Amino acid sequence: MSDLLAGAYLASGTIGNVGTPGAPIARFQLVVVPSQHSVSGTVVITQAVQGPSSHIVVQVKGKIYSTGFGKVTQVVSLHGQYVQSFPPPAIGAFLADFDAHLAIDNEWNGVGGFSYYQHQIENVPVASAKKGELV
């Protein structure tokens, strides 16, 4: 039973073009358990535009696998759902899907993409948080 969490660690960082005005950025805080190929945690999507998509919090879970070759040493997939409000003047909300895919090195730097309600972001940088940096 003690082997269930063997090698577990925390990973945090960003997916997206940080510093580009108006670009959606996904910030992640994840618990990674490589021995179980599992990843779970929270993703916060922010965008510098007003509206229901300007700050979204998603509980995610997913898979992590080693590639065994090249600069890309790991691939990660994430999935979750969140409550998406209809834009005004409509009233109401629904469950929307969030998905992400990352091709990263052992330090969680690389390239990836993510999708959420009516947004598809591809081929953007994945960057791990620096020591002591909040994401």
UniProtKB/TrEMBL annotation:
Lineage of origin: Bacteria, Pseudomonadati, Bacteroidota, Flavobacteriia, Flavobacteriales
InterPro entries for this protein: DUF1842
Protein's recorded name: DUF1842 domain-containing protein
Pfam families: DUF1842
Residues of the DUF1842 domain: 7-118
